[in-house]
Amino acid sequence: MSVLVDKFGRKVEYLRLSVTDRCDFRCVYCMSENPCFLTHEQVLSLEELALIGQAFTELGVSKIRLTGGEPLIRPNIDFLVNQLGQLPGLKELSMTTNGSRLTKLADSMYQSGLSRLNISLDTLNHERFSALTRNGNLERVIAGIDAAKAAGFNRIKINAVILKGKNDDEIIDLVNFCRDRELDISFIEEMPLGVIDERKRQRHCSSDEVKQIINDVYPLTVSDKRTGGPSKYFTMADSAIHIGFISPHSHNFCHECNRVRVTVEGRLLLCLGNEHSVDLKAVLREYPNDLARLKQTIIDAMELKPKEHHFSTDGDVQILRFMNATGG
Ligand code: SAM
Ligand code: SF4
After folding, report:
1. Closest atom of ligand 2 to CA, residue 100
2. Pairing state of beta strands 239-246 and 232-236?
3. What is d(CA 237, CA 66) in angstroms, rounded to the nearest whole number?
4. Centroid of ligand 1 to alpha carbon of 40 (angstroms)
């Protein structure tokens, strides 16, 4: 049972832990073409990240998702997965990845104790994929998805950000790709994090529009599947997969928010869409291994969790952090 309760009575049971701000891709909605990355000293060590995981699980957090940046480019990430995987009280250890390194690392991630994978894939068109990611290789990602299945991961979920005029004509292709491979899929509305030129040229594509397009081909039924996250899930009559919609703009889910994020700089972010944060790195570096002090800092931080975010749909950026620095 979580002892982390904010002043609106919401229990925090889910931590998104960013392990790097770096990435081998440069997705147009996530970061600028020439991002400025953190230095080695600014970044938490794997031991510090493991201690943060321990503190949160001792406070009742039962799910941790590793993210970034691209978590699989963090050297020795299997050490951290192994440490976190052994924490009593942790029911689920998952990762969000762009899939580019899964052909090499899927087996060792599975063996180290990672239980679930979300893999990002916005398009099945080679040219578009390299344009959207600025340098990614679609074949490698698809091979990575297949390698993850072969390694033993089940309930893999694809994340797709749909942008009008860029990939909104591929919604059914993406659903078919997931039906064929028995993967769940969540469609995500783009969020205005960080100042990016492309963002101004893109038009918002709402979850309702995406859902309508799918429903015309595959009638959707509301599913009772709940993951404690913001996705609302649907099923189709002739497939076992779930289709989720993450709609920060059109369907605000703040009232049921059960999560916080820790950036790789050790900033505890109480909300994706607000700047409220607490510096856990300062505590870790001034009082190394003082787990009690770290836990008390986290408990006190719950007071700062804001009621809701205020994203607008006009592309205006209210948050200056980029997604890769936030831990998506
Ligand atoms: N590199 C990994 C990946 O791409 O899966 C993990 C980190 S990435 C920041 C996590 C998720 O955030 C990805 O699914 C990505 O598509 C999504 N994302 C990034 N920037 C976004 C934005 N501005 N709005 C909505 N989703 C975004
Ligand atoms: Fe990298 Fe993921 Fe951001 Fe794309 S969305 S640039 S893969 S961190």
Report:
1. 7
2. antiparallel
3. 33
4. 23
Domain that holds residue 278: 14-326
CATH number at residue 65: 3.20.20.70
Cα–Cα distance between 191 and 214 in angstroms, integer? Answer: 22
Instruction: Record the tokens describing residue 233, joined without a space.
Output: 């899930």
Mean pLDDT by 10 residues, the chain (328 residues): 81 94 95 92 97 97 96 97 96 98 98 96 97 96 98 96 94 98 95 61 79 98 77 92 83 74 93 78 96 97 76 50 59
Atom of ligand 1 nearest to the CA of 159: 14
| Number of domains into which the chain is organized | 1
What residues are in contact with ligand 1 under a 6 Å CB criterion? 23, 29-30, 67-68, 70, 96-98, 120, 159, 161, 188, 190-191, 193, 323-324, 328
For the whole prediction, is pTM greater than 0.85? yes
